[in-house]
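Recap from last week: sequence in, structure out.
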Amino acid sequence: MKSEDLYREVKCRKCGNMKLKTASFCPHCGHIEKEHWWDRIRDRFQGDGSTSGARPTQAALVSTLMGLAIASYFLYTAIQKESIQSLILAVLTFIFVLRSWFAARKRKEDSESDESTTTHVFDAEEILENKFYCENCGARVDQDADQCPKCGMKFG
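Predicted structure tokens:
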């Protein structure tokens, strides 16, 4: 994990306010962020993000091609056996392939727009200052402070 990733901000799934990505709960609404099994699988396939979206594009391309192959098989079966069921399966498969392709494209566009607007990278002077972040509200606090100036949480 890079040092810039420690201070990256993302939106809370429940309230939509900004919180640190590494925080286990939202300081605004108290929503506890649990990593679901599908998030772990998605992160494994997407990698660490250093490929700038190349892997998700490849994964979407492979799944789209597989879906088109399945739809074409059902269409071939419908023509050969003159089966209405296979024709219906071919049309439904094609619709699901298009839907998943458009959803993947929209997710990629949304993630690119979120990264450009929500990422705040601190420079070395900000990181090396004698300050830290309040666990309750996320405010920057001096290292020698006894309580948070924003929310009043006591440290120590």
